[in-house]
Amino acid sequence: MSNKSRKTKQKELLYKIISKQKRLFSAKNIYDLCKKNKIGFSTVYRFINSLVKKGVLHKFYCNEEALYSLSSKSHTHLICENCNSIFHLKEPEIKIDASHFKNDLNEFQICHIQIDMFGICKSCLNKQTLTISDKNEKSRV
Ligand SMILES: [Zn+2]
Ligand SMILES: [Zn+2]
Ligand SMILES: [Zn+2]
Asked: Can you list the domains of the chain with their CATH numbers?
């Protein structure tokens, strides 16, 4: 009985901490925030995932790490194929018109969107132009 009420209190505290999060967070972030209350990592992890199932939290994968957000706003990565750097597209939010592939969705309900866009980053582009102009100069000599 006392064990059960302790668990309820833990969940209440976790919910309080989570509902204050303005940015994306990991289970480890929440665990660190409630460490002093002696809440185990598996309790934190399970509670977060129960909120994901309820649609309170939205799960994203950022550099192979699971991150959670209270907001279902789309999450977009710009990934450099040359140096593997990951950048985040902040604005605007990407919205997809699901009516385009309505038949394929087979009544699947879209909750939130994560997009990975691949290309070449600015610094790699600059390096590339440098090497090209270097070669040009050498061939001119
Ligand atoms: Zn979602
Ligand atoms: Zn990300
Ligand atoms: Zn790059």
From this structure: 1-70 (1.10.10.10), 72-141 (3.30.1490.190)
